[in-house]
UniProtKB/TrEMBL annotation, chains A, B:
Keywords: Kinase, Transferase. It holds the Pfam family Dak2. This is Dihydroxyacetone kinase subunit L. One of its GO terms (biological process) is glycerol catabolic process. Transmembrane segments: none annotated. It comes from Histidinibacterium lentulum. InterPro entries: DhaL_dom, DhaL_dom_sf, Dihydroxyacetone_Kinase. PANTHER family: TRIOKINASE/FMN CYCLASE, TRIOKINASE_FMN CYCLASE. It comes from the Bacteria. Residues 6-201 form the DhaL domain.
TrEMBL record, chains C, D:
It holds the Pfam family Dak1. It comes from Histidinibacterium lentulum. Its EC number is 2.7.1.121. Residues 7-330 form the DhaK domain. One of its GO terms (biological process) is glycerol catabolic process. Keywords: ATP-binding, Kinase, Nucleotide-binding, Transferase. This is Dihydroxyacetone kinase subunit DhaK.
Amino acid sequence: MTIDIVAVRAAIGRLALAMERDFELLNKADGALGDGDLGVTMTRGMRAISEKAEDLPEDLGQALLACAQAFTKSSGSSYGTLLATGIMAIAKQVKGETEVGADRVPELVALARDQMQARGKAELGGKTVLDSLDAVAGATAALSDPAEVADAAARAVTEALEAFRDRKATVGRARIFGEKSVGLDDPGMLAMERIVKALADREG
Amino acid sequence: MTIDIVAVRAAIGRLALAMERDFELLNKADGALGDGDLGVTMTRGMRAISEKAEDLPEDLGQALLACAQAFTKSSGSSYGTLLATGIMAIAKQVKGETEVGADRVPELVALARDQMQARGKAELGGKTVLDSLDAVAGATAALSDPAEVADAAARAVTEALEAFRDRKATVGRARIFGEKSVGLDDPGMLAMERIVKALADREG
Amino acid sequence: MKKILNAPEAYVDEMLAGLTAAHPEYYRLHGDSGRVVARAKAGKEGKVGIVTGGGSGHLPVFTGYVGEGLLDACAIGDVFASPSAEQMADAIRAADSGAGVLRLYGNYGGDVMNFDMAGDLVEFDDITCTTVLLTDDVASAAPEEKEKRRGVAGMVYAYKIAGAAAEEGRDLEGVTAAAQKAADACRSIGVALSPCTVPQAGKPTFEIADDEIEMGMGIHGEPGVWRGKLRTADEIAGEMMDRLFDDMPVGQGDRVSIMVNSLGATPPEELYILYNVVKARLEGAGATIVMPLVGRYATSMEMAGVSFTMMKLDDELEKLLTAPCDCAFWRVG
Amino acid sequence: MKKILNAPEAYVDEMLAGLTAAHPEYYRLHGDSGRVVARAKAGKEGKVGIVTGGGSGHLPVFTGYVGEGLLDACAIGDVFASPSAEQMADAIRAADSGAGVLRLYGNYGGDVMNFDMAGDLVEFDDITCTTVLLTDDVASAAPEEKEKRRGVAGMVYAYKIAGAAAEEGRDLEGVTAAAQKAADACRSIGVALSPCTVPQAGKPTFEIADDEIEMGMGIHGEPGVWRGKLRTADEIAGEMMDRLFDDMPVGQGDRVSIMVNSLGATPPEELYILYNVVKARLEGAGATIVMPLVGRYATSMEMAGVSFTMMKLDDELEKLLTAPCDCAFWRVG
Ligand SMILES: Nc1ncnc2c1ncn2[C@@H]1O[C@H](COP(=O)(O)OP(=O)(O)O)[C@@H](O)[C@H]1O
Ligand SMILES: Nc1ncnc2c1ncn2[C@@H]1O[C@H](COP(=O)(O)OP(=O)(O)O)[C@@H](O)[C@H]1O
Ligand SMILES: [Mg+2]
Ligand SMILES: [Mg+2]
Ligand SMILES: [Mg+2]
Ligand SMILES: [Mg+2]
């Protein structure tokens, strides 16, 4: 089983639903360490993408580029811009392809991570979405079976969230909370946990 | 017994004391129907006059003019300006005299009332200090014995206060309180009651 | 409401010290009462003088409007309290350059008595004075008792018109007539959302519930026409325009200037939201808007709320309104 | 805190509609995102463009400073939220007249990422961009981490300097260098007395007791350096000046401009009271004050509080600071 536009559309559907469901959860997490808009960013962004889902071209690069642009237009929040940056990086990489194997996942996630790091100018290990992606890229490396990739990704993203929970935030609005951020989930890592689980179809 | 500069100095002393004593009372009455500064106006004004008391000339006209000016400089409140206007009117009338008989009181009070009315452009009967002065002028008319004048003035000013209590204010800041002013003393009438009683030495 | 100050008694004097220190090119203290502000550069010789006065706490009103094409001098009292007649007389003297002085101010009892008395005082200096009173607040008395109305932000328009007329070289009669015409052409209405605190009183000027507003409330907290639940910007602006139009109808071809004024804390963002309705209503009535003023022109310290002032123009008023003026808070041309 | 608005979602769009309707001689909406404001009259052909951007709720920052001798265009987000990269790209396009565009804005994470991405987007249009970030808030990071500091009211000085440099006809490199010099010469510190309410959030940005203030608090309510009892104006101003002087010593013969800025609700009266201390401290250190700015230059809606921004001048900066500029909120010359 490979990833094609049909799979992308299905994933968009699952993700959009998950983000409607997690609206309050993400706002609340961001409210504790930031400005409380992460749920808004994610539902708005996914609604914008959902509206385009049916019209997405077969070319995965073009399709993902359209998704990134829809997300970017929907808000200017940090997370939205970072996600769009990551999706755009993947889009460029798969331009012209209509099918992508599960074995490409680690490479593409790492690519997104790197581009997002360049955009946000933050270090790895800073308790941000980058650490979630880093964990996913690491855990899926060398895997190629779709189910195994999905399992590993879902497990890794949750483990990263838990592993970083008791560390201090060093980046973005959360940084100003300093010691108070210890024990609280980074909102961006929490959001990425929900995103990866929805994409991997490994909820609950 | 006539009124000379010694009597004026004694009266200033009594009045200044009374105004210190009634500071809160007058602020409160003005607070209910205005901006709550009438006690401030009166103590400030009387302090300014007291400072000059020893240096006042024998000429009652000159002495009262100095009192009026001291009061005017001390504040710009309506009551202060009205009082100064009244004192100035009396000052002009007694210019050059060093003694004034008690029989002149009704004439001088009426004069003050008229000049103050011209300054404030308010009708008699409007529940203001003018009505207090009008009552005093009326009650003392045709009297000449100092003690009788003092008694009549003190009685009249209290009666006026009571008579107007249940009427509606029509002038100054109190006007905007409309019906709510019924049952409340007009602060300026209350102040005049305290003033007249202190001047007449008929406290309590 | 918290205030940044030293001693309450020092509030006004320190404020004036800072104002004149920050803008020495516009303002200077005149005389020794410490409460008279005059232009840093005297007006043209032989120009009619214009003075105003009133309580502190309304910046830019009153002192702020001393400047070219505006006022010559201003007497300023304690917060929300009239200056003394002596101070007003000093202001009149500062404004006089031989051509007489217009006293142009708002209709408040204490101010009126003191300016009248100040007029008596300066008679000795052979200064001729005239008076124009602003009575623009439609909420403060019925049309039949128009002369009892308070003066509010309409003052700013009157300063502008009178100032421009004086700058043009008109004589005292001419300047007074222009000011009176401006005063007659202005109507205002305010709505208050929250009170302010007079430093020496130390407590808010009035109490109002967290979800209430008061339509027509005065700038010192004088009672308005109704108090009720907070409404939408469109509803608030709509009612305010209704009340202005009821008092001074506006129709096809009319030219009007409109001021959307913050009473202090209300931010410009909210004024612009209101302006959409103001504009739609005026243009809907067939009028043309000339030089709309949106901002803080007449305030009550940190009070939240807004006022609208509408001035109907004829050619003369429009020319004077758009003529140049310059002070630290307002520049035209 | 009560606000006058219609729907919270409509706040920014209605505000921009009102702003451009009230001041059509200064501002126009550009493009169809509805969130890009450009000069009504385009700048000189071949002039370097200057854009800024950031969240709404800070008027006159950011949009208000679009104007001659200042900015060419501005992308504006929801209240306290970054505009999107697309909107910023549109603003850059509006500002460009072939000589390149300086992105001049405050150091906030979202804004930085979006302006960078916007730069990527306009590369396709062959527009050369440079960047200068304001990091003037000394309370937001230690001197060793100066590059992490937030940008606050120093932005206004940087707009003024960069705008004047561009108007002079300097090239992109020259304008960028002037802006960077201005940014490097600015230090700010703020103190908050009360919060404001973001319309869509509906509740105050922070809570603070009735007798407390927070020194160094950010304009969105970011924690400051201490929270404590309200003090006198002299003590507050004294500590703020201490913190500025600690970060950027000022001595004999220095020429500095100083901004005493209200965060919104704090009235000018209180700013002038503070200015007395500011002036005494600067002159006491032997410095000369050039063009002090006292007023509302960078706000957070109805937040009560003040900020001080100090800019040390050399001949170049002083010349650019005092050069003419003109927008609806500020005029020099
Ligand atoms: N510079 C950065 N680099 C990496 N991740 C970042 C950066 N800034 C923010 N983030 C991530 O984004 C999340 C916050 O996103 P968001 O709520 O959109 O921010 P804001 O509302 O401040 O724009 C953080 O929890 C963090 O995971
Ligand atoms: N126009 C007027 N004519 C007569 N008396 C007046 C007038 N205005 C005010 N007063 C009197 O002055 C009193 C209020 O004085 P004061 O507190 O000094 O006024 P304010 O503080 O409003 O200047 C009133 O109670 C009334 O007796
Ligand atoms: Mg956020
Ligand atoms: Mg945000
Ligand atoms: Mg009173
Ligand atoms: Mg008073």
